[in-house]
Each structure stands twice: as C-alpha cells, then as structure tokens.
Amino acid sequence: MPLDVIITTDRIRKDPVGRELVRYLQVNARGLNLDDAVLYYDFPSYADYETVVHRPDSLLLSRVYGVFAFSIVRDGLVETLDESLSQFCSILIGRLLKSRVLRSDRSHLTFKVVPLLLIIGGAQTALDVESEVATSFERVGEQLHRQALTAPLADNAFAEARSVIEGAKALTRPQKRVVDDPAKKPFAVALSRLEMEIANFDQQQRRAAIVTTPGPQRIRGLAGSGKTIILAMKAAHLHLTQPDQNILVTFYTRSLRASLINLVTRFYRHYRDEDPNWDRIHIRHGWGGAKTPGVYADACRRHAVVPMNFAKARQAAGSADPFDFACRALLKDVEVSPYYDHVLIDEGQDFPTGFYELCYAVANGQSDEKSIIWAYDELQNILNVTMRSPEELFGTDTDHKARVSLARTTVQLPPGATNDTVLGKCYRNQREVLVVAHALGFGIYRDVVQLLESPDHWNDVGYDVVDGNFTPGESVRILRPEENSPLHLDTPKDAPIIECYVAAAFDDEVAWIVNGINRFIAGGLHPEDILVVSLDDRNARGYFTSLSSALAQAGIDTNNIIADPYTEPPFLISGRVTLSTVYRAKGNEAAVVFATGIDAISPQSRSSRNKLFTAFTRTKGWLRVTGVGARARAFEAEIRAALTRFPYLEFTMPDLQEVELIQRDLSERHAKAMKIRNEYTTRLKNEGFSEDEIYEILAVEEKHGSKRGTKRDS
Prior knowledge:
The structure is a single chain. The chain is of the alpha/beta class. The protein folds into four domains: 4-166; 205-423, Rossmann fold; 431-662, P-loop containing nucleotide triphosphate hydrolases (Rossmann fold), CATH 3.40.50.300; 668-713. Helix content is 39%, strand content 18%. The chain is built from 23 helices and 27 strands. The strands form seven sheets. Strands 1-2-5-6-9-10 form a six-stranded mixed sheet, with helices on both faces. A hairpin with a 5-residue loop joins strand 3 and strand 4. Helix 11 (310-317) crosses helix 12. It is globular and about 85 Å long. It starts with a strand and ends with a helix.
C-alpha cells in the first residue's frame, strides 16, 4: 500500500512548507521505504500537566522507522519549538507504553519516537536542542534512514500503535471478564473473544473521526458502522483543538445521552488527562423540556420564549409532526441567534426538517461556512420513512438558493478529505444477523416492501451485486462479503447465533425468554449483557411486567427503560437485564437481544419493517426472536429463508413503481464532481504543479463555479 496521508485540518492551505513536506514524503515514499506507513498532518495534540497543548506539524508512523514527529521552524523560535516537540514526544511515549504489545520491557518501547525540527532556509549552525534537525527535505530522508529500526514493526504492533495515536484505544476498551471455568462459561468465553476483535476501528472510520472538514459534512452507514463513535471522537477532537469554541452534540434517543457523554470523555481524556469543559461542549437531546436541557428548549430560553411540551405541540400541530411544529414556531416567532461554532447531529434520520433548520440557525457562520455534521442510517428511520437531501433538510434562503449543498462545498476540502462519508463495514453485528435483518427489513422473502435504489447503493452499505441488473422480473443475487462484516462469534454448537421461537400463548413466550436469559447468565454472561426489545408497542408494558416478575423469581433484576417516560435512566445498569422498546433501544447495543412480540409487526408496513431491522441490529452477538401465533410463524419462515441463503440475499426484482425506494441521495452530479476533482488534482501533481499552484487553481474554480451557480439559481 502507498503512504497513507491524513490531512486532519485545512490549516495546510496556509502552510506551504507543510504541504511541501507532505509532498516530498509522498513522492519519495518508495525510495524511503514508506509503503504502508501513515502520515498525519496537524495531529495529534496532547496537553501536559500545566494544560499546555503540544502538537507537531506532522507525525509519521512507519514499520521501518517507528514514529517521527515533525515541527517546522517558521519564526526562528527554535528553542520554544524544540521544547514543545520534546514534550509532545514524551507524552506520546507514555501513551504507547501503556500497551503491552508495544513494550520491550517496563519502560521502553520496541521502536523509537524521534522529534525532528525542519528548518528550511535557516542557518546551519549547531543548535542546543534535544530534537534532530533537518535543513532540507533531502536531510529529512537522511534522518529517516539514520534512525531505521533493526527489525520492522510486526503487523500487530503497527496496528496497535496506530490505534493508540488515533485514539481508538480510548473508546474500545473491552469489558474485563473473569472466566474461572471456560467449559462451564461458553458464552462468556465467546463474548470475551468477540470484544477483543472489536477493539480497533478500520481506517475509514478513523479518518472520518479525526479529519476536520470545513463546512457541512454528512456521515451515513449501517447500524453498527461506528457513526455515533465517530461523532463523539469528532466532538472531542474539536474541543481539544478549539477549546474556546462552543460545540453541540445532539441526539434523538434519550437513553443515548449517557453513552455520548462517556465516549466524548474517554476520547478527550486520552489526549488531555482531564474531563472536557462542559460549558463549551453541550450534549443535548433534540427537544429537551421545561427543566431538561435540549437544543429546542435551550434556544427558547436564550430568546425568552417558553418552550412547548409534547402535549401542547401535539395539540397545536394538528396532523403535522409535533416536534417539527415546535421548531418552526420558534423560528417564525423570533430571529434565532447563532450560538454554536460546531453542530453535530446523531440519529439524523429521525429528526424532522424543522429541527435541521433550527440547527442551521444556531450554527455560526455563513451558509457554506457553517460547521454542521450529521449522521444517519436510512434503514433505522422508524418515524419518518422519507429520506431527505441536504437541500431538503436545511431549506433555502430568500434567494431560493439551497442553504447547504455538499456538492457546492466540495472544492473547500483538504486533500483526500470528503464531506460525504459512507461507512460500508459493520462492526457491531454478526454477518448472519445483518443479512437476516436486511432480509426482513426489506421483506425480501415474502412481499418486497422497500429496496435500496441501485447497485451502487447496495455497494455503499457493504454488499456486492453478484447477479442481476435490477430489471423488473429479473433474479437478483447480492452477497455480504466477510470483510465488510469481519467480526466472528465462536458460539457453542447448541446455541445458534439466531433462533426463533413461535409460542402457543403469551405466558409461553415469556417463559421461553426467561429460560433463555437464565441459560445465557449460567453460561457466563452478566445480566447487563442482555437486552429485551418489545416489538409490540401496545403491549410492551404487559410484556415487561410479566418478564420482570418472572426474572425476579429467578433472582435476576431488570432495568425497565419505559417504567418512567419522563426521565432519562441509564440504558445499562450493572447486574440488571435491560427492557426497552425499539425507540428507546436505538443507538444502543447488547451482547444478546431478545426481540419479543414479532406478531405485532405489520408485514406490509415500511415503518414496521424498519422496526424489525433496528431491533435485530442492536445485538453484537446472539439474536432471539419470539412471537405468538400464525403471524409469528410467517416471520419465522422469512428468517429461515434468509438463513438458508446466507450469506446471499436473493429476490426477483419488483416493479419499482410498486415498492418504496430508499434514496441513495448521493447524486450522480455530486459523485462525478468528487471523482473529477480527485482525478484533476492527481493529474496536476503528475504534470509538475506545486501544491500552492493547485490550491490557487482550485480557488479560482471555486470562485467561478460559485458565480455560475448563483446565475443558475437566480
């Protein structure tokens, strides 16, 4: 693989020497033995005990050389830069030493961390500094060769070092499980191995998390592809690098709040050894309440407006969405002032358009300058099944020009960055679970209710189209490749990953669930590893009352999320089995999921099918599906059909006029623009244009393109 260059901020636009350093290492990667190495620009940053932040201009991680941290001397402050760079390296070494994989003994790494000052055009006199010094790019190459390791880093050590540098180790700490008797605790053994596999993100996820793009950005992917974690990492990284700016992280599912706070805190502590400043970074539910913080409620209070509660909004909205109505009413009544420098929206598929317009209003900056990042999963959209483009989400200005356009802001991006990230790999669900969830979510093995709109969209979510060209009446065969669902659960032979039970009556169903929970706990799992999701909204309280009583008799406590609708209880409580509806479970996960009451699902309803997909994909391990009667038996047949054809999805292409399409919303125009831009930049580099010249050319194109767009839109 070629040198992987990660430009984390657009500071490189105003840093010609930094660009030339990146360019030099890229062009000479083969001769410098930098294949498979990774180069970061403007990342990472660490704070010392005095809370002073230290960050190199670039950081190189190489199998051949270990770690090199570069600082460019621009203003002659050599000693100051040397001190800061040395401090950075000392802190980084401390982080790396925490990993057993990277230590040769208790106090030494198996590789070097080398600080290097780059002084271009400066005097070549001897300097009293701790860092190595290079006065030209060629001398950088010489310094690399001089510091070569006696033996290259092994694959696992390189991956571990990269995980530490990028912060993934801070977010993916497996729960310690003491398994005293593996033979009697097979579920604990299997889950422990699985959690170790989850410990590292892939490079696409990491890049999406640590690269800060100017202007708006969209992140989309399947359940379990890491969207929430990426947003948490982004929020913490923004707070680290811009501590005086106001940052908003908002979400739809109330129970997600504690998880987001935990994720942001852990990532931030990895770099600063202290908690975030919660006066600057706000983790807020979308709505909030009279006494509860929330994006809408906070905006009302800042403008001396009494926020509507749900009952009042529902009464006033009529047939409209109550939350949409409340947001629009506020925007109509007052001129909402900007408040946040960055707005990050999780679970974007569930928010109404009025909320997006409110987020646009509270974000600082002009149209394309607003830092708004939203993440969504089009297959978890339970409440509103119409996927919307950025232009639809944020509305238009008085000149009828779209407020937010990803295509329009593409030219602002740093090299190698994207403002529309698609995450195809799934790091939560077993491959069997994901394929079955898609089969039932679409209705593939009964009557197709909804489909992705094209082969490219299937590719986006990590499938390969094997047969068929999507002509109505033609057979289509789609494969879920193992590399896009790489986690493997070594489940006991008598405990399949997916099991379905059709009960004769309600009491029979409850008894089967209780027996299953008992077996998992006897096999080494903790009660909090288990989640019961009711698919039957109408009878959820009855399910949970009966389950709580039966489990209590077995000595097992429960955490009933819906017991009090006016509070935000933690989703997981140690020593308790979680009981939740699909709505409250969104954004959360468990090792085992019991999806109960499948007989309440309407097979022809798109929103009901989406509930199935969402419930099934809460599990990172085992899935148990239960229901009563003929309708449950029909869904059992769908599950068996999907497992029989696994890892493929096979169906006859329906008439697209008769099914709902899930829009890809990556317009051909935008996709082509991104491709052409990257090809254009590469060609200019190959023709000998410098980075400065390329930026100037793109800036001119951006200016002319903006004028043309204004004329078209007027």
